[in-house]
Design goal:
About 40% of the residues lie in helices and about 15% in strands. The chain is an alpha/beta fold. It has a single domain (about 5-15, about 30-325), classed as TIM Barrel, CATH 3.20.20.70. A 9-stranded mixed β-sheet has the order 6-5-4-3-2-1-7-8-9. The radius of gyration is 20 Å and the shape is globular.
């Protein structure tokens, strides 16, 4: 059968591989992770971005230039994060640049610490209006790592739990501009025995929660052997039981259930990671300076997308991606 006679979805799948080496099976990116700044107003135990000083941040005009590239023609989702992305005064223009430059874009998601609630709510309203105008869905994740003082200790900001709850209350009543919202909890030593309380809070307040394990992370400047990640056996066992509860009694999404099982097996049985990852073969990261990387956790900067061809950078550095997949992804 000729390729031209195949269904469009099959043609797109084949074309996604046409420039790739046999391994890793690179495809045209469907997802972009985009930290739009590298500063933050929290002092999280698992992150050192708050110690960074504001430097060059890629402008909306440069974002348009970067995204006007064949590499991004199949991108469906962009995650805007930071740092704390709502600290950018031009977040509306950044959102517009993203929404108008990607022909197949379906959704934009925002991750926020919700510390300055009025500023965060204003940013969400602006982003929502832009997304509505461009027929793009907006999702918001509010970082919440525990109930009350537990969250404030993890984030290093007293009163952050209250401001996060206020932003969530706003989101509950904003279905006209926000397609979905959730909380994201990062589990570290500080909050490991408070995660059940947070889950119960989510259930009681009808807020969907997602949970992940805090790990050393080069983009967060936390590859320094800090105590926050140094879990003992009791703490690991506690997390594993909690993950089992999530997948058996709380989570309804099958892919997320599988992720929780994979994470449990990594923590307790030291099994290799079984859950998938977009950044193995179909996702990229744009840094706040406009640089291109594969994943944010392990990839080196491939080059400067403001002055170099993203398409060329993505395909010609596949040896580096193969090295990450073979030596890092399983852990």
């Amino acid at each position: 059968m000729k390729i031209s006679n195949l269904p469009k979805v099959a043609i797109d799948f084949i074309n996604g591989y046409k420039d790739a080496k046999m391994y890793p099976k690179q495809r045209l990116p469907r997802v972009i992770q985009f930290p739009i700044n590298d500063i933050c107003n929290s002092k999280c135990q698992m992150c050192n971005i708050w110690q960074q000083k504001r430097e060059y941040e890629v402008t909306p005009d440069k974002i348009r230039e970067i995204l006007n590239n064949d590499l991004y023609r199949k991108v469906k989702a962009v995650g805007i994060n930071g740092g704390e992305p709502t600290l950018r005064k031009d977040i509306g223009e950044v959102t517009e640049a993203v929404a108008t430059s990607l022909p197949n874009l379906n959704s934009i998601s925002l991750i926020t610490n919700a510390i300055i609630e009025k500023k965060v709510i204003a940013a969400i309203k602006t982003m929502g209006e832009v997304c509505n105008q461009n027929d793009v869905h907006l999702g918001v994740m509010v970082s919440l790592d525990g109930v009350g003082d537990v969250h404030d200790r993890v984030r290093g900001r007293k009163g952050n739990f209250e401001s996060a709850v206020n932003v969530l209350e706003f989101l509950k009543n904003s279905s006209d501009i926000v397609s979905n919202y959730k909380i994201g909890c990062t589990i570290i030593k500080e909050n490991v025995f408070g995660i059940e309380d947070l889950l119960q809070w989510c259930i009681d307040n009808d807020v969907y929660g997602r949970f992940r394990l805090g790990v050393p992370h080069q983009r967060l400047y936390s590859n320094d052997g800090r105590e926050a990640f140094d879990l003992n056996h009791e703490e690991k066992f506690h997390i594993a039981n909690f993950l089992d509860y999530l997948r058996k009694h709380y989570e309804t999404d099958e892919s997320r259930r599988f992720f929780y099982k994979s994470l449990r097996d990594q923590i307790i049985y030291r099994k290799p990671r079984a859950a998938g990852c977009d950044w193995k073969n179909r996702g990229v990261t744009l840094t706040s300076k406009g640089e291109l990387a594969y994943c944010a956790v392990q990839s080196r900067v491939l080059g400067d997308s403001k002055s170099e061809d993203s398409n060329k950078l993505y395909w010609e550095n596949s040896d580096h991606l193969e090295d990450i997949v073979n030596n890092e992804c399983t852990t």
